[in-house]
Design a protein that fits this description.
The structure holds two protein chains of two kinds. Chain A is α/β, with parallel strands linked by helices. Chain A is built from eight helices and seven strands. Chain A has helices spanning about 20-25, 45, 85-90, 105-115, 125-135, 165-170, 175-180, 185-195, and strands at about 5-15, 70-75, 95-100, 115-120, 140-145, 150, 155-160. In chain B, the strands form five sheets. Chain B has a five-stranded parallel sheet with strand order 5-4-3-6-7, covered by helices on one side. In chain B, strands 17-16-15-18-19 form a five-stranded parallel sheet. In chain B, strand 3, helix 2 and strand 4 (about 65) form a beta-alpha-beta unit. In chain B, helix 2 crosses helix 5. The longest helix of chain B has 17 residues, at about 85-100. Chain B is globular. Classes of the chains: A alpha/beta, B alpha/beta.
Chain lengths: ~210, ~475
């Protein structure tokens, strides 16, 4: 896993609540079998007109946000479908962090798995950062995962909470899968304790 | 998650957590063993690919079941897929399952269906199990008192490789629903009413346990509907403590233990129920007697009203954010604030999905449809949740009732719930749908979705607009037969 410690970047504001993963990456792109190439499809229906030109009214089409790496949005960002493609699309569009008052539960897990940092702030703080991203052209944030702080050129704005497990995985570049494999012996002994009558899908193979 | 209550009383969630913790800290982050891993074509190819790249194999193919459901066409089986990208994705699932020794229900299989319909009907979903799938509606399986939740593709890979997942304990929310459901009001209406009350983030990250006499009175199929929709309130999982209804449903199913083993299992299962006095982090109560059929009017499931009600006026909404969200939703939906729900006309009707694609749902819809005709302006389709549901419905003659009324009777799959197959809305089309999400573009770019129960969808198909199913003759109402 790619390590994340601190980074600075341009903020782009998408000030609306409950942005669901169907909007982040619509279904027609989920038939692909790779992890790359979703960036151009990110926010597809909001971002493009039916003829493929950018929708002028869509916030993230503002040229001032070109090169943005921090997305600032409303509460419950990433709700809905479990599609990890949403995170691949945001990464593909250049984002390394999303700042919001809360996140969809599965989206948060998917983000952390892909080094897209979900920075959860209070509603007041998140709204203030969104407002500054709109009002001040070129507004930038410094996100320090080790210190768990968010700052701008005027200084530290606030701290943010993160699960210590994930902080360790991200800062040290550890893969949760490998951490689970370290417990192979524990897994084996759990398997021996399981009730014999628990179902096995393999026994259904011949079912008619 | 709260610790044990007085006298060590534990919630069902806590009991399942404790029984599956392989390693880690019980109060912060633990490695949980997964009893059943359900796999489908859309969220698994990248997981298998990484597994292969790392030189790993599936640890427990015997605890993994793959089903083709999301992209499958619902026309006649045996035809090649028109969409080459979807066809390739299905081929990869087939290849991955073959390579890793995973049982696959493909398009030719007599048990194919939506993964969340297939698991329960086979008896694979059992109380006390941990169940995951790369699909948010995995919460459905909680109806049996299992801990079931959706995961992303990276976690799918982790479960394939280790049969385990790292999990932090979730806060618990008890939703107690008390009282008898009025005639014509279904489990779907209970779910929509709850989401309308708490909001789409009202249970964010929580494990919800549904309790109370209304929930106890629901069939397993109704409970599956309620748990299915739990994710729409932002929850990680929803569950219902096992009881006699659970046991009666499970006995004799193909994947269930038999004879003495069933008795032993049943005893274990009943002991999983949350203990008297177990404490939840939060609790809320809903009175069922006052519930009416619900219809969503906006672009998330919390934007919902009673069928006899109106779309709210923006000025009635509590805050600026709510007003902005509602205005955006109404603009997308092509609706005016204050419109009476019954004045909304529909072009399409979809009956199906992991929310409402089971036999009881089809029976409830057929009871409304029997002897009637679909409104000439409406195109209506029924997509059974599985081949098993389809066969059972056909043996009761439900297919004939739907066909004679002018409904299309189709093959099983996720279909127009998410429009990954050819069943999609055209831009601007308005649909009464028994599915779970009314997000923008969910059923097709520009499509407009209204979530309702199966009888409400059936009634809208006949009348061409939403009607209060309670106003139909009593004999047509579900539960009145």
């Amino acid at each position: 896993m790619e390590g994340v410690r601190r980074f600075e970047g341009l903020c782009a504001a998408l000030p609306r609540r409950d942005v669901d993963t169907d909007q982040i990456i619509p279904k027609q792109f989920l038939k692909r079998t790779g992890r790359e190439g979703y960036g151009d499809a990110c926010f597809f229906d909001w971002r493009y007109l039916p003829d493929g030109r950018p929708r002028p009214e869509f916030e993230l089409n503002d040229p001032a946000y070109r090169g943005a790496s921090i997305l600032v949005s409303g509460a419950n960002f990433g709700c809905g479908s479990s599609r990890e493609h949403a995170v691949w699309a945001l990464r593909g569009m250049g984002f390394r962090a999303v700042v919001a008052a809360s996140f969809g539960d599965i989206f948060r897990a998917n983000s952390l798995q892909n080094g897209l940092l979900p920075v959860q702030l209070s509603e007041v703080q998140a709204d203030a950062i969104a407002a500054r991203s709109v009002e001040r052209r070129g507004y930038r944030l410094l996100i320090d995962l080790e210190a768990q702080t968010v700052s701008d050129r005027d200084g530290e704005i606030c701290g943010f909470a993160i699960d210590p497990f994930w902080k360790e995985c991200l800062t040290l570049g550890r893969d949760p899968l490998e951490l689970a494999l370290d417990h192979a012996a524990d897994i084996s002994s759990h398997e021996l304790r399981r009730a014999a009558w628990l179902p096995r899908c393999s026994e259904l193979a011949g079912l008619t | 998650m709260s610790g044990p209550g007085p006298g060590g009383a534990r919630t069902a969630y806590r009991k399942i957590w404790d029984a599956h913790r392989v390693a880690g800290d019980p109060e912060s982050r633990a490695l949980l063993f997964v009893d059943l891993h359900l796999v489908h074509e859309v969220t698994s190819p990248q997981a298998f690919e990484r597994l292969r790249q790392a030189g790993r194999t599936v640890r427990r193919p015997d605890l993994t079941l793959a089903v083709m459901d999301h992209t499958v066409p619902t026309g006649e089986r045996g035809q090649p897929l028109q969409d080459p990208v979807a066809a390739e994705q299905l081929r990869q699932l087939e290849g991955n399952c073959e390579e890793q020794g995973i049982t696959l229900f493909d398009l030719r299989h007599r048990r194919q269906g939506i993964v969340h319909v297939v698991g329960p009907e086979l008896g694979l979903t059992q109380p006390g199990m941990t169940i995951v799938c790369g699909d948010s509606h995995t919460s459905t399986h909680g109806a049996f008192g299992a801990l079931a939740f959706g995961i992303g593709t990276s976690e799918v890979e982790q479960v394939l490789a280790t049969q385990c997942l790292w999990q932090a304990p979730a806060p618990t929310l008890e939703i107690r629903v008390e009282g008898g459901l009025p005639l014509g009001v279904t489990a779907k209406d209970v779910a929509l009413a709850i989401i309308g009350e708490v909001g789409v983030a009202g249970a964010l990250g929580s494990v919800v346990e549904y309790t109370g006499s209304t929930i106890r009175g629901l069939s397993m199929e109704g409970r599956l509907t309620v748990c299915n929709m739990t994710i729409e309130a932002g929850a990680r999982a929803g569950l219902i403590s096992p009881d006699q209804t659970t046991l009666s449903y499970l006995e004799g199913r193909p994947a269930c233990p038999r004879g003495r083993d069933f008795e032993a299992a049943a005893e274990t299962w009943l002991a999983l129920a949350s203990d008297e006095g177990a404490s939840f982090d939060r609790s809320l109560r809903i009175a069922a007697e006052r519930l009416a059929p619900h219809v969503t009017w906006g672009t998330n499931p919390a934007m919902v009203a009673e069928v006899t009600g109106r779309i709210p006026r923006l000025s009635e909404l509590p805050g600026e954010a709510e007003r902005e969200a509602a205005a955006r939703a109404l603009s997308y939906m092509g609706l005016e604030e204050g419109t009476a729900i019954e004045d909304i006309a529909v072009d399409r009707v979809f009956i199906g999905s992991c929310t409402n694609g089971r036999l009881e749902d089809l029976r409830a819809a057929a009871a409304v449809v029997a002897g009637e005709r679909v409104h000439p302006r409406v195109r209506a389709m029924v997509v059974p949740g599985s081949q098993t549901v389809k066969r059972a419905a056909e043996s009761e003659g439900l297919d004939e009732i739907f066909r004679r009324a002018g409904f299309e009777w189709r093959e099983s799959g996720c279909s127009m719930c998410l429009g990954m197959n050819p069943d999609v809305l055209a831009s601007g089309e308005r649909c009464a749908s028994t599915s779970n999400r009314n997000f923008e573009g969910r059923q097709g770019a520009g499509g407009r979705t209204h979530l309702v129960s199966p009888p409400m969808a059936a009634a809208a198909a006949l009348h061409g607009h939403f009607v209060d199913v309670r106003q139909l003759t009593l004999a047509e109402l579900p539960g009145a037969r």
